Amino acid sequence: MPTQTPQAPTKEEVIELIKSIIDPELFIDIWTLGLIYHIEIKEHDIDIRMTFTSIACPAGPELVGEVKNKLATLHGVENVNVEVVFTPPWEPSEDLKAMMGIL
Predict the structure, then answer these.
(1) What is the mean pLDDT of residues 90-102?
(2) pLDDT category, 12, cuts 50, 70, 90?
(3) What is the pLDDT of residues 56-71, one digit of tens each?
(4) Most buried of 75, 77, 86, 87 (most Cβ within 10 A)?
(5) How many CB atoms lie within 10 A of CB 31?
(6) Is residue 1 part of a domain?
(7) What is the reported pTM?
(8) Is residue 6 part of a domain?
(9) For 67-81, b where at least 16 C-beta lie within 10 A, e where not — what string?
């Protein structure tokens, strides 16, 4: 009997896991913060393009590690690649500013 290759996760599954990753300084998940700029699922690989709230974000390496570790637990995932970019620079949305009380 042939072995079935595990099906790649859906974008919705990836987003749900990303929503469980909380920025340790702002106490808001990185999806809601808008730190994820791009998600691409290719067979057994997930490519993420993300940013930080600032270039000198002390939690940056921790957040990248958590993204990689959590997404690697999804069925069918062999590699998680995270590219950190600062263009465009992160800018909180008006809704996020209101949620954070900075409007």
Answers:
(1) 89
(2) very high
(3) 999 999 999 999 999 9
(4) 77
(5) 16
(6) no
(7) 0.89
(8) no
(9) beeebeebeebeebe
**Please, are residues 48 and 54 in contact by the beta-carbon 8 Å criterion?**
no
User: Is 78 within a domain?
Assistant: yes
| Cβ atoms of 39 and 83 closer than 8 Å | no
CA distance 97 to 2: 53
For residue 94, the domain's CATH number is: 3.30.300.130
| Residue in 43, 46, 37, 40 with CA at minimum distance from that of residue 69 | 46
**Structural domains in the chain (count):** 1
Q: CB within 8 A of 39, min separation 6: which ones?
A: 11, 14, 15, 46, 47, 48
pLDDT at 5 over 80: no
Segments forming the whole domain that contains residue 81: 11-100
